[in-house]
Amino acid sequence: MIRLTEVGKDFGGPLARLRRERVRALDGVSIHVPAGSAVGLVGPNGAGKSTVIKLLLGYLHPSRGGVEIGGMLPRDYVERHGVSYVPDRVTIPPWWTVRGALRTFAALAELDDWEPRVEREIARLELGPVADRRIRALSKGNLQRVALAQALLADRKVMILDEPTDGLDPEWVARVREILAEWRAADPERVLLFASHDLDEVERVADQVVVLQAGRVHEVLDMAGDGPVPSWTLEVEGTESARLVAQAFPGALPLPGQAHAFRVEAGSARDLGRRMQTLLERGGVVRALTPGRGSLRERYRSSGTQRRGPA
Ligand SMILES: Nc1ncnc2c1ncn2[C@@H]1O[C@H](COP(=O)(O)OP(=O)(O)OP(=O)(O)O)[C@@H](O)[C@H]1O
User: Fold this and answer.
1) Which end of the chain is more exposed for a tag (fewer CB within 10 A), N or C?
2) Closest C-alpha to 164, from 80, 49, 76, 79
3) Nearest residue by C-alpha to atom 4 in ligand 1
4) Which CATH class is domain 231-292?
5) Ligand 1 contact via 62 beta carbon (within 6 Å)
6) Which of 302, 296, 310 lies closest to 46, judged by CA?
7) Which amino acid residue places its CA nearest to atom 10 of ligand 1?
């Protein structure tokens, strides 16, 4: 559905080249987002995430390589079918009201049944109490919810989000996850591409994660795949068992929000078996042992992704 092939993007004209101020924002980037999938773009500041998004919206043209959505040039696709989009910086005229802004966006998208749609999104994003407030008077989280409401107004096949949960509290981060899952479930062909610094969130939402670093694809992680299992989730009964986990698995990490649950690692299945035996022999009571893929945070760290230096 979305395909970037060997894409390069340079910023700065001939003068910048002479002054050696030209920025190579993307270099040889290939990304494929099949219909029905959700792809997360991660990477340090300046890695090129927003540039990928701007190329997909047709705001920028690639310096090299090809970008297409549904087999069309991005600008043509956007004009013909529309793309739902939440930008990294939400810019809505500050004197508009929330309801007025959503009505205007619905009118611009030429939606027939715009009135019930606007009210549906106001309800879904729980914007009722601020619906008649001016944009300038909104908190960052509420403004982000207006941006999401705007993106959900029309029934598009493609949704592109730049830092969708930026400024939201944990409750709303979870709610947005549900909303995106509902959006995807309503049409199995729908495609979601989003950039985020929130690795836990990316892990929960994405089927595939593209790690960008200094304008190149550093790694593509298949979140649904069944590759090597570097870690396990171990749940035990009571504090004494929890203490014994630390002895059997030095380096066990307690999982936040779950009592007596740990992420544990072992070099091999045999090593895992030995450590489990130690735990049981010492009187540990095990509730569950489930394979984990290793969290995206761990994999991201272990892939050695570094922050980009000055361009
Ligand atoms: N209009 C522009 N002119 C010149 N350089 C630009 C322009 N837009 C982006 N860049 C440069 O391109 C590189 C990639 O930027 P981009 O905004 O795509 O990164 P990002 O991964 O989205 O970063 P962040 O996580 O900080 O949002 C950076 O070095 C940035 O300074």
Assistant:
1) C
2) 49
3) 11
4) alpha beta
5) no
6) 310
7) 25
Is this complex's ipTM strictly greater than 0.90?
yes
CATH number for the segment(s) 2-222: 3.40.50.300
CA distances from 117 to 83, 120, 188 (A): 17, 5, 21
**Tokens describing residue 98:** 């929330």
**Is the CB of residue 196 less than 8 Å from the CB of residue 40?**
yes
Domain ranges of the chain: 2-222, 231-292
Q: Do domains 2-222 and 231-292 have the same CATH topology?
A: no
Q: 230 exposed, middle or buried (CB, 10 Å; 0-12, 13-18, 19+)?
A: middle
Report the amino acid identity of residue 145: R
Task: State whether the beta carbon of 10 lies less than 6 angstroms from ligand 1.
Answer: no
Torsion of CA 55, 298, 232, 253, to 10 degrees: -140
| Alpha-carbon span 15 to 12, nearest angstrom | 7
- Ligand 1 and 160: CB distance under 6 A: no
63: Cβ below 6 Å to ligand 1? no
Q: Is residue 91 within 6 Å of ligand 1 at its C-beta?
A: no
In tens, the pLDDT along 133-154 reads 999 999 999 999 999 999 999 9
Ligand 1 contact via 49 beta carbon (within 6 Å)? yes
CA–CA gap between residue 84 and residue 93 (Å, rounded): 19
Segments in the chain below pLDDT 50: 226-229, 306-311
d(CA 214, CA 83): 27
Q: Tokens representing 28? A: 């040889």
